[in-house]
Amino acid sequence: MTDLNQPDPPKPAIRSVLIALMLAIFLGALDQTIVAVSMPAISAQFKDVSLLAWVISGYMVAMTVAVPIYGKLGDLYGRRKLMLFGMGLFTVASLFCGMAQSMEQLVLARILQGIGAGGMISVSQAIIGDIVPPRERGRYQGYFSSMYAVASVAGPVLGGYRTEYLSWRWVFLINLPLGLGAWLVANRTLVGLPVPQRKPIIDYLGTLLMIIGLTALLLGITEVGQGHSWRSTEVLGLLGCAVAVLAGF
Length: 249
Fold this sequence. Notes:
This protein is mostly helical. It contains ten helices and no strands. Its main location: membrane.
């Protein structure tokens, strides 16, 4: 928690941190939109449409489930470690996406990428609360929001261009230099963040229930979005599981 009376961090330091965090937010948001236009090319290469929707859904489900977990782990172990881990996982998973030789490999890599993106997005918001005085946080949150707007416009354009003139693989490989650059800047500038002094206490059962419940809920909604009826056995089973597990949580 930021002390209201503590002096503001030096402006150059805030600027460097902000660049790294905004780039992380941008990359996490970009991969929600950049892939859509490359789906026909991916399907044509792997000749598999059964898992095609999960190239996007797997990323979104993993990211959504990961966000609250990163938030809690950041409170327990420190945000710097979690931020660097999320950036590193996202970047490495992007390489795996670009090297995938089957639809199954691509979906698995996208799930890992979503887990990393959840960390980048969640922890970035928390770091701003650590280094910026309360009176200025709204302005910085506005900067973050602008990254979502830019990504929503740039994603389809970049995805279409790279798929048309290079390969669909470059939709993912574009993350490598940007992700590595963001990681290096974050590693150098994210110093002096609060580090918990007490021994971490983790509610493993509660965490497991939350993961299962949210995953079942999101999978059920995703199934409906892919054309299944709300009354289908799969959807009712997933939603029923979500309600039961989240009630226990």
